[in-house]
Amino acid sequence: MACMKLGSKSEVFHLDGRTWLCSTGLQTDVVIQVEETTFHLHKFPLLSRSGFLENLLAEYDNDRVLQLDDIPGGARAFLLVAKFCYGVRIEVTASNVVSLRCAAEYLRMSEDYGEGNLVSQTENFLDEIFASWNGSIKALESCEEVLSAAEECSIVSRCIASLAMKACADPVLFGWPMSGGSEGTVFWNGIRTTAKPPSVNEDWWFDDVSFLKFRFYKRFIEEVESRGMKPEKVTGSIMHYTKRNLPLLGSNRQSCSENGTFTDTYSTLASSPVHEDQRTLLEEIVEILPSEKSVTPTKFLLRLLRTSMVLHTNPACQENLERKIGAQLDQAALEDLLLPNMGYSAETLYDVDRVQRILDHFMLADHDTSDLSNYIVEESQLLGGSHPLTPVTMVANLIDCYLAEVASDVNLKVSKFQELGAIIPEYARPLDDGIYRAIDIYLKAHPWMTDSEREQLCRLMNCQKLSLEACTHAAQNERLPLRVIVQVLFFEQLRLRTSVAGWIFVSDNINDVNPSGNLGLARANVVGVNEMRERVYELEKECLNMKQDLEKIVKTKGGWNIFCKRFGFRSKTRTSPCDKGGAALIHGETRG
Asked: How far is the C-alpha of 125 from the C-alpha of 130, rounded, in Å?
């Protein structure tokens, strides 16, 4: 690191306890005290260089001690000033130049009191320091000791501007090796060498600035943003800074105990004196996060939110994080969304209310839903085909998985479960298998629910949008209300009827366009028709099994007549809705 040497005389100062003595052969005639250190010096070398000391010594009484407790840098800086005034050799570095510059300003050591005085010398060296990245970092860190004076001398702002300029510029412009000449040849400070230049990543400066005090780091971020740095790089730096300076962020691992409460592995740390500093730092970090959507990873935002819950940050901080997460909820993962309930009077294991607020923010965001609201689910999609993976669809899947995860909590009220599930619009779920699974888990964990409550809960799903596998499961699910089971069977029957009619229509068209003279094509048609008929018979069997399952359920409810009267079916015969619908149609239209 660069240094500047001033003066040429040999050392004449020596320390005796807390007193600096000057052994020049002449008796000292002034005593100056800085903090707890005393200096026995001579008037002339001091007043010839300092306007402040000239005025002070003009009325000096030899019997008293001058107090200079306000001088920036304290006794260490004043010792260097005194040596400079005596012409003794001193070494100025990036670590002490700031305090020396501020002390020179305080003592008014300008060119009016001698050519090449300390103000101009330190200013020239600062210009040299600002040309170096490491020197600028070191100088900025040393500003903390003399912050007020460094601000008045504009040293802090110049340090930050120097660092920001280098972070935003090409590294080769400020001292990195530059390639040139023949292949494999580079220049380092003008010297030709065959060594390979080190590769420089875009985040090369992240680590260095992460050691800065937040007051400096915040101004650095504001400066690079004003110079047009991409928000992604700004976020990358903030994430690096946060991970280094917020230990709780990397320690938020909770485990669930047997009684359904969370055990914080860092609860002791959170209640320590560091707690207050960490909370303040987190609140300040959240304020400088870029406002652009999807620039800050959702996973990182959720980790910040979890930590803010532990540290009990102010409501504005948590609201800010919830809003940012909500705007890009489609990028969240389930494991990160499982936020523990940390309230003192918490009843549920997970903070469902907070997730509901986040979901509300997502739904209020400016999403283009004009086409989605008219979205119709096709048969191929219900049978496992693809569907448009829009943000609202991804959030619907995420929330359905979240509901399935929290449904086993016996303290989760059915009203809260319904509120969260109902926020998702129906068009956002191409299939309702996810919400059905969550409902089934909730019913299993809450067997004491009334029939009315179970029916109300099941209104969250659309039986028409269940896959074949889900329908099969639902038809045999004793936890579902009987009305829901009937709806499942009815809509599955309609689906079966539609499929059979479509296959028969295709079969008739194939026979019409196939002349009897083309034997190979005829055989192919026969094979195709046989395959379709086999599929029809499989569907017949499936429908029959569903009918039998329904009859078993009805028997447990008090008989078929009660079932028919309850749901409006005629009870003159024992023919079921499945017999009248799909099975009768199949036998009537597939024979011959």
From this structure: 9
Mark which of 135, 150, 175 sits at the end of a domain: 175
At which of 480, 499, 529 does a domain end? 480
C-alpha 208/C-alpha 341 separation (Å) is 37
Q: Give the range of the structural domain holding residue 115, as residue numbers without chain letter.
A: 3-175
Supply 39's token pair: 């200096």
**Residue position matching structure tokens 């209300």:** 481
Same structural domain, 468 and 534: no
Q: Are residues 418 and 552 in the same domain?
A: no
Give the count of beta carbons closer than 10 Å to the beta carbon of residue 358. 26
Phi, psi of 251 (to 5 degrees): -115, 10
Spatial separation of the C-alpha atoms in residues 250 and 262, rounded to whole Å? 17
385 and 534 share one domain: no
Domain count, the chain: 3
**Residue ranges of the chain with pLDDT lower than 50?**
177-190, 192-196, 252-268, 368-385, 557, 559-592
Residue 219: how many other CB atoms lie within 10 Å: 18
What pLDDT score was predicted for residue 264? 47
CA–CA distance, 321 with 336 (Å, rounded to integer) = 14
SS (H, E, C) 375-396: CCCCHHHHCCCCCCCCHHHHHH
- Same domain, yes or no, for 433 and 556? no
What is the residue type of 522?
A
